[in-house]
Specification:
Elements (H helix, E strand, L loop, with lengths): L13 H5 L1 H19 L1 H6 L5 H14 L7 H4 L4 H5 L6 H17 L4 H18 L3
Helix pairs in contact: 2-4, 2-7, 7-8
Length: 132
Amino acid sequence: MSEGTNAWGAADTPYLAVGGDVVLRAVVERLYDLIEVDAPKIRAMLPSDDAVSRRKLADYLIEWTGGPALYSPDRGHPRMRERHLPFAIGSEEVEQWLACMAKALDGEEVSGDVRQFLDERLTALAHHMQNK
């Protein structure tokens, strides 16, 4: 991290550093496409039509990274762990999700300080979802 910058770089928020809505929505689309192919256990937890899941995650990530509040006005406090409790999430599912997310971020060429910041935060978030 350079002097005078945030953990994610010089931008005011991670949202701006990553490229805003367009990039985050593209990451989420790529993530779900990868889950479809590479993570059957995770895919099995999703509805057959995962369009709403995609929108919710994109809205969450946009808000979570400091962008516009798109998730909480509609859904309230994220309570991510509570929302994921109905699903059996073990270390295998956590690692599969993180691998898919890494590929999705790679595919959208997210790099540098913001990538390191997101990798650290998303890893902690994914492990927090583990419930088995």
